[in-house]
Amino acid sequence: MIKATRVPILQDNYAWLLRCEETGATAIVDPAEVDPVVAAIESAGGRLDMILLTHHHGDHIAGTDAIRERYGARVVGATADAHRLPKLDAQVSEGSEVTLGASTARVMETPGHTRGHITYYFPDGGILLCGDTLFSLGCGRLLEGNAEEMHKSLSRFATLPPETLVCCGHEYTESNARFAVHADPANAALQTYAAEVTKLRAANQPTLPSRLADELACNPFLRANDVATLADLRSRKDNYR
Ligand code: ZN
Ligand code: FE
Q1: Would 74 disulfide with which of 44, 89, 95, 240, CB 3.0-4.6 Å?
Q2: How confident is the model at residue 241 (pLDDT cuts 50, 70, 90)?
């Protein structure tokens, strides 16, 4: 079984430390800052087998080469983005499997935020490493992809087990909550959840990982039934305050 631990880095990013409880095998997802990531690896036993990258943006990959060098870990990333990611030891695409100790992740191609964005899903542990595709109460900006691609990516997440833990790339939940309540004012579950988020952030507590069940009930982007609705929400959010 895989356990995921948040590693706060940069302004509001999270890297995720993954540890196979049976074997001690360890991976880090999107290590964009060296010192806090090294500290997290050391406090988990000082072993690093793999570095998993979701997409090519600097706030997800910046520490990769330094951390690879320090631990000799294998770097995994999307074939489609191999030309703009750090040097990859394994190139993966839709349906690829990535094994960490006794558990195996399935790779999903989830374009929308960027063209080559991928997501790693560990059914064993229910861990979804979705980078900047799905955020708690939001989704990534459509920097390269379009609303159709994002809608398809989010629709695939929506079919995963509701207990799945959403381990995304940013602590954007509080500002996402403000827009979500504005966009879906009649959603009582969202009101309750947003109030909880406000309380957590006021106490300087993280809101992630979130549970997919809560996202399905509260996240307007995940709840958008069609591409046009998602496109409209996304452009309104881009211009919100
Ligand atoms: Zn990004
Ligand atoms: Fe990012």
Answers
A1: 89
A2: confident
Report the residue count for the chain: 241
Cα(144) to centroid(ligand 2), Å? 13
Closest ligand to residue 15's CA: 2
Whole-number Å distance, alpha carbon 132 to ligand 2 midpoint, is 6
The CATH number given to whatever domain includes residue 119 is 3.60.15.10
Cβ-contact 166, 209 below 8 angstroms = yes
How many whole angstroms separate alpha carbon 202 and alpha carbon 45? Answer: 32
Find the 11 Cα to ligand 1 centroid distance in Å.
13
Classified as helix, coil or strand, 64 is helix
CA distance 199 to 178: 13
The 3-state DSSP class for residue 154 equals helix
Q: Ligand 2 centroid to 60 CA: how many Å? A: 6
Instruction: List residues with catalytic annotation.
Output: 55, 57, 59-60, 113, 132, 170
Ligand with an atom nearest the CA of residue 169: 2
Range of the domain at 71: 2-238
Contact 160, 121 (CB under 8 A): yes
How many percent of the chain have pLDDT more than 70? 100
SS3 56: coil
Task: Give the integer Cα–Cα distance in Å for 72 and 50.
Answer: 9
**Tally of structural domains, the chain:** 1
Expressed in angstroms, the distance from the first to the final Cα of the chain is 42
